[in-house]
Specification:
With 104 residues, the protein is of the alpha+beta class. It is built from one helix and four strands; from the N terminus they run E-E-E-E-H. The radius of gyration is 21 Å and the shape is flat.
């Protein structure tokens, strides 16, 4: 038995290389396509937490450079949840400080 994409009768295209994070995977049967993400926007919905796998899931819309959007989830483990919470608290304090200066 052959590995996927290596046998004579394989229906899967053979990749030219293993993809790295943020890279484009070139497939021999199709041209490369680079999709650029413009921004990721949090959805206005409750965050879910799954105690069994210790993950929080936050719904997001991924906005692509061409204007299209794709619904996805941001998945955070406990250390990421704490780090994100601390970063958001700093941003909120900075916003409140800037607003109070502007009110003078």
């Amino acid at each position: 038995m052959h590995a996927a994409g290596t046998g004579r009768n394989s229906i899967l295209p053979k990749a030219t290389q293993s993809p790295a994070v943020g890279s484009v995977l070139q497939v021999s049967s199709a041209p490369a396509v680079r999709v650029l993400v413009s921004m990721v926007v949090l959805l206005e919905q409750d965050i879910s937490y799954d105690h069994g796998v210790e993950q929080a899931r936050i719904g997001v819309d991924v906005v692509l450079a061409d204007g299209n959007t794709q619904r996805a989830e941001l998945v955070l483990n406990p250390p990421q949840m704490y780090a994100t919470s601390a970063q958001l608290q700093r941003a909120i304090r900075a916003r409140e400080g800037a607003r109070s200066i502007g009110d003078r």
